[in-house]
Amino acid sequence: MSNPIKENLIITKRELCKKCYMCVRECPAKAIRISGGVSEVVLERCIGCGHCVRVCSQHAKQVLSSVESVLNLLKYDSPVVAVLDPAFPAEFHNYNHKLLIGMLRELGFAYVHDGAFGFDLIANRMKKILKKKDDKNYISSHCPAVYYYVTQYHAELSDELMPLVSPMIASARAVKKIHGEGVAVVYISPCIASKGEAASNEMIDEIDEVLTFKELKELFKRKLIFPNPVLESDFDHPLGGLGALSALVGGLPQSVELYEDLLESEVVTAAGRIDFTEAIKEFKSEDLKVKLLEALCCKGCIMGAGMTTRSPLYRRRARISKYVREVVNKRDKEDWAENIEALKELDLSRSFAPNSKKMQAPSKERMIEILKSMEKTKPQDELNCRACGYSSCRELAIAIHKGLAEKEMCLPYVIDELHYSIKELNSSNKELTNTKEALRQSEKLAGMGQLAAGIAHELNNPLGAILMYSNILMDEISDDDEKTDDLKIISTEAERCKKIVGGLLNFSRKNKVVLLPVNISELIDRCVKISNIPEHISLQLEHDKETNIAEIDKDQIIQVISNLINNGIEAMPKGGALKIITKGTENNIQIIIKDTGSGIAQANITKIFEPFFTTKQIGKGTGLGLAVSYGIIKMHRGKISVSSNDNLLKGQTGTEFTISLPRKGESSFKDSQVPEFIQDKF
Question: Is the whole model's pTM more than 0.70, yes or no?
Answer without folding.
Answer: no
